[in-house]
Amino acid sequence: MGDYFVAHQEPGSRRVRKFSRDNHSPRECVIKIESDADVVIARRKGRSMAADIGFEPRDLTRITAAISELARNIIAYAKRGEIVLLSIDQEKRQGIAVVSRDDGPGIRDLSQAMRDGFSTSGRLGLGLPGVKRLMDEFEIVSEPGRGTAVTVRKWKS
Amino acid sequence: MSTDQGAFTDQFLALLQERLHGGGEDTLQRSYELGRRLLGEGLGVLSVATIHHTAVLRALEGARSQEQTLDILSAAQSLFMENLSPYELTQQTLHGVNLAWRRLNEKLEAEAKRIAHALHDEAGQLLATAHISLADLAEDLPPRSQRRLQETRDILDQIEEQFRRISHELRPTILDDLGLVPAVEFLAEGISKRGGFGVDVKSHIEDRLPPGLETALYRIIQEALTNVSRHAQARRADIRLWRAGHDLHCSIRDDGVGFDAQGVLRPGGHAGLGLMGMRERLAAVGGALSITTGHGQGTELLITIPRENADVSANYHR
What we know:
The complex is a heterodimer of chains A (157) and B (318).
Chain A: E1 27-33, H1 36-53, H2 57-78, E2 81-89, E3 94-102, H3 110-113, H4 127-134, E4 137-143, E5 147-155
Antiparallel strand pairs in A: 1-2, 2-3, 3-5, 4-5
Helix pairs in contact in A: 1-2, 2-4
Chain B: H1 3-20, H2 25-40, H3 45-61, H4 66-90, H5 94-139, H6 143-170, H7 173-177, H8 180-195, E1 198-203, H9 211-232, E2 236-244, E3 247-254, H10 261-265, H11 273-284, E4 288-293, E5 299-305, H12 307-312
Parallel strand pairs in B: 1-2
Antiparallel strand pairs in B: 2-3, 3-5, 4-5
Helix pairs in contact in B: 1-2, 1-3, 1-4, 2-4, 3-4, 5-6, 5-11, 8-9, 9-11
């Protein structure tokens, strides 16, 4: 299926890596996700952070769509979790990272979850493969019974 | 416009009004969710564009000034992008679709192998056991009953023969061992016997083809012959295989009743899974299918596989 990253560690306690290697301190924003209202907050913060970084409108829509899908998954499968937004400022490029973390049931079969049209909740199975398509980088760590962490990044072109 | 589309247009218009009256991220979020629902209902991008267009026209009826018009258009634009973005989640490259089809075909082949094995070995063994018990029983019976028992055993023989044939057609070992042409000849013989029409196979291909291509062609010919025996009322069918330049061709022609190809293949038309399956199987090995038919004119399926694709399909395992 491709280049998503699978490893076994503890998603719930996983620290968010700091990407910045230069003088700018990374901007970070954590949003608790429990309800649809939280999804709206995450979208608004993500959109505004991405706009500050200088993404064009098309990419703002893609980034908020990814946030929506990740937050939806949290509510659907883990009931609660969080979305972390990171502004990445490296020497040669700028971008945004969206991390979704939960302590939910985890994903038993990752390659199946990454397949198009797959959804255990009987919903439209767009989520993870769709998010991967919208963003430039995609990593997922999931452990059955312990939770799931998805990290996606998009770079400004 | 269907009533559903009408309802969606109303929802989109309501979001647009809300957006115009200061609605923020939550209107965008709801537009996104609406887009997701449209996608789930199976509406295409053009239907979504129509919904959007109708809603915007209705909103513009209320515009009092150029400024308001611009506000409406700008609000509609941001909602429309949200509305469409779920469609971007589903976009797949042609390559991805082909890969998915190959995987599905591989799964089907493995499944066919499993069923073929069950039929041939397991059911076959049970039949053999039944034969032995009947033979035992026969010794205790008077001659008249023995004759009737023999009739039953003849039927069992026929069942065994059928099992053997069906098992071979499901996953012919002959295809792996001897290649496409002998496998197709064997298949043709069986279908011809059961279907009551003559099948003639002529091939001008001497060498073995890549395994994936052999399997794909075998399955397509099998499906085509099944269609002939089910629908065509044909007296005969001809299968030809040849190369022309760099391309590989296969033609399957019958003298049956034909069908309305355009009606069947029209989008939303009632294309049997068979024809679609053939198309997709061919697409997965980079081939193309053309159909010549009409009521009372017989049917010819012509398959063309460019050589470079015939080579690529070597990676497509059985």
